[in-house]
């Protein structure tokens, strides 16, 4: 019977440990680097899976029939444009116009810079808004100085229903505090940190407020791309001097999913 050729595993292990001791710090740093590298790969795989899960959950929370049309004027300023949303295409079941502005909001000795969202009562339906206190805006508020505050802004101003705020040169009554909505990447403003007032009330803050967003709901997710084309054509016909870009939650989801796949 022949004996095994070469050193045994005990000798190989002993030589490896001796080499580690001889190499000292550099060897330990190399081993540490290998360990960190393996941990990073595992972390990236977990991040990719979590990002994909978050994308799907976020898509469900957005409302899969929501469409956001960005409206931007081309060329020199002209007369104020406000599209008629009462005769929308049949593939669109509801729409609401939004005008945005930035302003200082004061209550007593407290002051915060905030985004002002001018929009009608339909905003609550399209974005599924609710109140922690008070009520939402209605059509009866169009000529009144009534506002609803986002949850985070209300805490910053220590405001509650019935309080009075100064925005620009006017005093407004707080009629409601919104339930926290979180961030919606389809919108250029976080409602938790904003003031919601009637669209007509934006004239108190600026002489010629511009509609910059149109929110609309499609009738179903299967035909939403077609509804977006109809909405874009309808708005472009009414606003010939403007660029109209309609965005869908599915487009945002596709981008988030692509990013998550890069991590996996």
TrEMBL record:
InterPro entries: MacB_PCD, Macrolide_Exporter_MacB
One Pfam family per UniProt: MacB_PCD
GO molecular function: transmembrane transporter activity
Gene Ontology annotations for the cellular component aspect, listed alphabetically: plasma membrane
Domain MacB-like periplasmic core per the UniProt entry, residue ranges: 28-232
Superkingdom per UniProt: Bacteria
Membrane-crossing segments per the record: 27-47
Sorted UniProt keywords: Membrane, Transmembrane, Transmembrane helix
Protein's recorded name: ABC transporter permease
The species this protein was found in: Pseudomonas fulva
């Amino acid at each position: 019977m022949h004996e095994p050729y070469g050193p045994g595993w005990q000798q190989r292990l002993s030589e490896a440990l001796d080499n580690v001791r001889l190499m000292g710090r550099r060897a330990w740093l190399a081993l540490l680097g290998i360990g960190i590298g393996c941990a990073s790969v595992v972390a990236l795989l977990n991040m990719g899976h979590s990002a994909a899960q978050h994308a799907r959950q976020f898509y469900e929370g957005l409302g899969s029939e929501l469409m956001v049309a960005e409206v931007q004027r081309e060329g020199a300023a002209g007369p104020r444009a406000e599209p008629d949303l009462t005769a929308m295409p049949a593939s669109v079941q509801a729409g609401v116009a939004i005008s945005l502005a930035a302003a200082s909001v004061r209550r007593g000795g407290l002051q915060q810079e905030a985004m002002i969202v001018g929009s009608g009562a339909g905003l609550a339906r399209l974005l599924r808004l609710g109140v922690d206190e008070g009520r939402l805006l209605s059509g009866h508020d169009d000529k009144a100085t009534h506002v609803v505050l986002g949850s985070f802004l209300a805490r910053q101003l220590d405001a509650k229903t019935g309080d009075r705020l100064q925005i620009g040169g006017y005093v407004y009554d707080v009629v409601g505090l919104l339930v926290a909505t979180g961030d919606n990447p389809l919108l250029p403003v976080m409602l938790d940190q904003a003031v919601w007032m009637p669209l007509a009330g934006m004239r108190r803050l600026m002489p010629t407020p511009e509609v910059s967003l149109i929110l609309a709901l499609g009738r179903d997710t299967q035909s939403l791309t077609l509804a977006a084309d109809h909405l874009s054509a309808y708005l472009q016909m009414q606003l010939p001097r403007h660029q109209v870009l309609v965005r869908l939650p599915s487009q945002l989801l596709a981008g988030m999913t692509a990013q998550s796949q890069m991590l996996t």
